[in-house]
Amino acid sequence: MIQGCIEGYAFSMISPRLLLPILLLLLAGCSTVVGTGRSQMRVISSEQERELGEQAFQEATAEVTIISKGKEARMVRRLGKRIVEAAEILYPSAEAESYDWKFVLIDDDEIANAWAAPGGKVAVYTGILPITETEAGLAVVVAHEVAHVLAHHSAEELSHALVMNGVLSAGGAALGGSDAKTREIAMQAMGIGGQYGVALPFSRLHESEADELGLFLMAEAGYNPREAIAVWERMAAAQEERTPEFLSTHPAPENRIDEFRELMPEAMELYEHSPYR
Ligand SMILES: [Zn+2]
């Protein structure tokens, strides 16, 4: 497990004086991703993660119109709730019930996107609805976003950014309160303020992890997982006219579809036994 946490750091680039504190911090922050069992390194607390996510959500939604009434807004909230309940059943150690979840629909037909801020705030733009088409189709996208949250992908990326920026150079102590420098790096790492929402493109690893967890979550929530393939096919087709914003942070639909096909037997098993069916 420890090896997974210290992989990817160019230790030869780190000054010998900082090597031990950094190593200790990496080891202290070593944890396991729910579902996949991968080791990840997080040096910010869940509390800090939540706080940053809340701030990111406020900033990203400050100048948009949130639709709170009507069929579509209700659908977003309903399926969000079902996916969280599925997470509680499927991955109890993720403690999905302890998050402050919020699922909102943003009124913008021009933006085909969805994103999640760490800590459980998920936003869907009306512009993605023609691609997702059905409730199960939208569940593909929302479950993928919920999976990013439960796997703490933002916190992991942020931790790497903080370590690489030498934020811990003050003796290597674990990060204290969210001081100005931490906050600045956090906002950068999460890509706040960009037109495409809160998240920067995640790494390939995080994407396939969110695809996998998301597929199982939607299946457990009683949405047909085969819809995942259909949605990514529609996403690829939509690209011929204009690249959906979701694809600017989620590249290569073709590779995803192959992965979904591999995971489908296990997902169908969950779907067949879903309490929602
Ligand atoms: Zn993603």
The low-pLDDT segments are: 169-177, 192-199
User: Any idea what the shape is?
Assistant: globular
List bound small molecules: zinc ion
CA radius of gyration is: 19 Å
Give a count of the beta strands, DSSP E runs of length 2 or more: 6
The strands making up the biggest β-sheet line up spatially as 3-4-6-5
Q: Oligomerization state of this entry? A: single chain
Q: Terminal Cα separation, in Å? A: 37 Å
Short précis:
With about 280 residues, this protein is of the alpha+beta class. Helix content is about 55%, strand content about 10%. The protein has one domain.
Commentary on this structure:
Helices cover 54% and strands 8% of the residues. By secondary structure, the protein is an alpha+beta fold. The protein has one domain. The N and C termini lie far apart (37 Å). The structure holds zinc ion.
Which helices and strands, and how do they pair?
Blueprint: H1 2-6, H2 16-28, E1 30-32, E2 39-41, H3 46-61, E3 66-67, H4 71-90, E4 102-106, E5 114-117, E6 121-125, H5 129-132, H6 135-150, H7 153-164, H8 180-189, H9 204-220, H10 227-238, H11 245-249, H12 253-272
Parallel strand pairs: 4-6
Antiparallel strand pairs: 1-2, 3-4, 5-6
Helix pairs in contact: 4-6, 4-9, 6-9, 6-10, 7-8, 9-12, 10-12
Bound molecules: zinc ion.
Residues 144, 148, 202, 207, 210, 250 line the site of zinc ion.
